What does this fold into?
Amino acid sequence: MYRPDHEDIFCNVTEHANPWAEVPEYTLAVKVLVQAILDATYIPTRKQRENLQQYRNAYGSPEQKHEAMRWLQSDDIRPLSARWIADVVGIDMQRIRLRVEREPRRVREELTQKMWGER
It folds into this structure.
């Protein structure tokens, strides 16, 4: 199993996906995992916290965050489970789980940088 460095835990999503780049199902599975990580690490701004009802659907909700974290923590190995996707992609799911729990803000920043590049 691929074990990325501490500094580059999400590089596998793009750099090691090359053999599967033309397989839409693989791309979808990777995007599902990425979205779950983003949902689980979501931290609302002060304005969003003050107006939770107004921003609930646009930016997620505490329930959505909890559901994403529960999905990431599951040890289910059926197709399209977080663990199954991590195995297909070749990343260490336990390491992602620990990082999401311990440093959600940093994980979110790293992942969005990978997706959007430096700004």
The two ends are 32 Å apart (CA to CA). The first helix runs from residue 12 to 15. Residues 6-116 form one domain.
